[in-house]
């Protein structure tokens, strides 16, 4: 079995098992089984360029390198998170392209490729994760790397016309053509990329792959999942404070709506708060009865758009609380700090409604975690944005348009009033999908397609002979 080499912006800390999500755990398990390397940025900033350092744990090595402050600003906060993130989330209005961003992004990818090559063995499967590293296969190929290289994009892929609003759209897609396999979250994303390949580049699909020059690339959907069994077990282990809070609410007949998101403008948080505010206006009977717990830890605070969304959210939460709160009841509890996974899982289980309303999301794992965490005898209701990748599978949730505050408020009401039989029926359907399309299934199906022989090996051999 070939080794697997994962390349991502940050190397996950594989020793902190409980803090990392199902994804890092699934990837680490696969590497332990096959042997392999996890390569990426160490998360440190150092002024002088330092080489990658390997730390070996059993058959797995974590290989990481520091970045300079300028690289962090222009590659990570800059091109990746101020250009690609908004563009791929359909937010052209938030794209903030500044001089050097693209050059530094290209340079960091070149440095990653140069540092990675000495660690690669002939049969290794290289699996590149996410939008930070789109040019990596092209740079590795330039250095003579003939390994199978796959790419998985965790975020949405935008429609061709939206992509075409950037000056270097063709270059971006050409980067992707150097991979053997490009994996995307949904059929909408696959449709967007393949339409670009066909309409803007005149490529044709033959036998499940797009040919260009002597190479070919497959584009397929691999919806990502969680470790539902592990998450459900964690959800049943209530810490005392969560158990006491739940008892108190039961005694008082109070209900809880929950949201959990990194504080990101793609997550639709202001619209979500407004919808809850609207619910309280339209249903005064919920005052002192239904509260909303929003956990929204900070991320990417050095990017202006993130500072702005934080201010907007704090003003909104403050105004809704100011308007409706009683001396013994707080309508919105907004937590702008990370909460441990051990607490998050039982909090999701102890909530009557999971309110997950991104304006656009690659998948959204919180939706799947909410489903996995529920008590199957008395499950809560998932209210889910149509524009989360998860909606493609989780259509037994109450699907909403996250821009439509009225509709979201009506769906919250429907969720809060839903009879037990309907809750169970919907939950059973959701859970079945979350169990089936789990993190391990996602990983195995991707590697299985990446390993499948195609014309690229022959093209590689022919090139080698010619050279
Ligand atoms: C990207 C794509 C895609 C959140 N707050 C806390 C916390 N979390 C955990 C959640 C969940 C994870 O972080 C977030 O995952 P999401 O999928 O919801 O969103 P992104 O971070 O934007 O992830 C997304 C994903 O990649 C995978 O492909 O689904 O579409 O954008 O696991 O529970 N965890 C802890 N404390 C918190 O306060 N411990």
Sequence-ordered SSE layout with sheet pairings:
Blueprint (H helix, E strand, L loop, with lengths): L3 E7 L11 H13 L1 E10 L7 E5 L2 E8 L1 H20 L12 H16 L8 E5 L6 H7 L5 E5 L7 H4 L5 H9 L3 E4 L2 H14 L4 E2 L2 E4 L2 E7 L6 H9 L3 H13 L2 E6 L8 H14 L7 E6 L8 H21 L7 E4 L5 H9 L3 E4 L8 H9 L7 E5 L12 E3 L4 H13 L2 H17 L2 H13 L3 H12 L1
Parallel strand pairs: 1-2, 1-5, 2-4, 5-6, 6-7, 7-10, 11-12, 11-14, 12-13, 14-15, 15-16
Antiparallel strand pairs: 3-4, 8-9, 9-10
Helix pairs in contact: 2-3, 3-4, 8-12, 8-13, 10-11, 10-14
Quick take:
This protein has helices at 22-34, 69-88, 101-116, 136-142, 160-163, 169-177, 187-200, 228-236, 240-252, 269-282, 304-324, 341-349, 365-373, 405-417, 420-436, 439-451, 455-466; strands at 4-10, 36-45, 53-57, 60-67, 125-129, 148-152, 181-184, 205-206, 209-212, 215-221, 255-260, 290-295, 332-335, 353-356, 381-385, 398-400.
Mind explaining what this structure looks like?
The protein is 46% helix and 18% strand. With 467 residues, the chain is of the alpha/beta class. Bound molecules: GDP-alpha-D-glucose. GDP-alpha-D-glucose binds next to helix 12 and helix 13. This is Trehalose-6-phosphate synthase. Pfam families: Glyco_transf_20. Belongs to the glycosyltransferase 20 family.
Q: What is the molecular shape? A: globular
Quote the beta fraction. 15-25%
Hetero ligands: GDP-alpha-D-glucose
Q: In terms of per-residue confidence, which ranges show pLDDT below 50 for 5 or more consecutive residues?
A: 461-467
Mean pLDDT: 93
State the distance separating the first and last CA atoms.
29 Å
Count of DSSP strands = 16
Largest sheet: 10 strands, mixed
Spatial arrangement of strands, main beta sheet: 3-4-2-1-5-6-7-10-9-8
* Share of residues in helices: 40-55%
Question: Helical stretch count?
Answer: 17
Structural class: alpha/beta
Radius of gyration: 23 Å
């Amino acid at each position: 079995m070939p080794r697997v080499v994962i390349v991502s912006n940050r190397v996950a800390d594989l020793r902190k098992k409980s803090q990392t999500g199902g994804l890092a755990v699934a990837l680490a398990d696969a590497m332990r089984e096959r042997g392999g390397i996890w390569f990426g940025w160490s998360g440190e900033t150092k002024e002088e360029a330092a080489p990658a350092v390997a730390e070996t744990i059993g058959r797995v090595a974590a290989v990481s390198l520091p970045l300079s402050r300028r690289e962090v600003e222009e590659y990570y906060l800059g091109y990746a998170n101020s250009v690609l993130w908004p563009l791929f989330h359909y937010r052209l209005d938030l794209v903030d392209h500044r001089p050097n961003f693209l050059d530094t992004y290209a340079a960091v990818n070149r440095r990653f490729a140069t540092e990675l090559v000495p660690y690669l063995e002939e049969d290794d499967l290289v699996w590149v994760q996410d939008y930070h590293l789109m040019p990596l296969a092209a740079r590795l190929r330039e250095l003579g790397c003939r390994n199978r290289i796959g790419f998985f994009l965790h975020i949405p892929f935008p429609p061709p016309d939206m992509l075409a609003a950037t000056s270097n759209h063709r270059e971006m897609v050409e980067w992707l053509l150097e991979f053997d396999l490009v994996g995307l979250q949904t059929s909408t994303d696959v449709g967007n990329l393949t339409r670009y390949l066909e309409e803007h580049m005149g490529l044709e699909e033959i036998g499940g792959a797009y040919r260009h020059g002597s190479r070919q690339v497959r584009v397929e959907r691999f919806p990502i999942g969680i470790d539902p069994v592990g998450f459900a077990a964690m959800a049943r282990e209530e810490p005392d404070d969560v158990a006491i809070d739940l008892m108190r609410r039961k005694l008082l007949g109070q209900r809880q709506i929950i949201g959990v998101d990194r504080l990101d403008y793609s997550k639709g948080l202001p619209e979500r708060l407004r919808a809850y505010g609207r619910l309280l206006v339209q249903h005064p009977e919920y005052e002192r009865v239904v509260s909303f717990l929003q956990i929204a830890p900070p991320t990417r605070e050095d990017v202006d758009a993130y500072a702005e969304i934080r201010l907007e959210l704090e003003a909104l939460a403050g105004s809704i609380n100011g308007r409706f709160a009683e001396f013994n009841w707080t309508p919105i509890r907004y937590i702008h700090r990370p909460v441990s996974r051990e607490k998050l899982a039982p909090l999701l289980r102890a909530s009557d409604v999971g309110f997950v309303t991104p304006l656009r999301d690659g998948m959204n794992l919180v939706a799947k975690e909410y489903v996995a965490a529920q008590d199957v005898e008395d499950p809560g209701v998932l209210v889910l944005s149509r524009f989360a990748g998860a909606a493609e599978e989780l259509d037994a949730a109450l699907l909403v348009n996250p821009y439509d505050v009225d509709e979201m408020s009506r769906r919250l009401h429907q969720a809060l009033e839903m009879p037990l039989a309907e809750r169970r029926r919907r939950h059973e359907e959701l859970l079945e999908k979350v169990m089936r399309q789990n993190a391990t299934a996602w990983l195995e199906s991707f590697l299985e397609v990446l390993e499948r022989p195609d014309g690229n090996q022959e093209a590689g051999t022919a090139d080698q002979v010619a050279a």
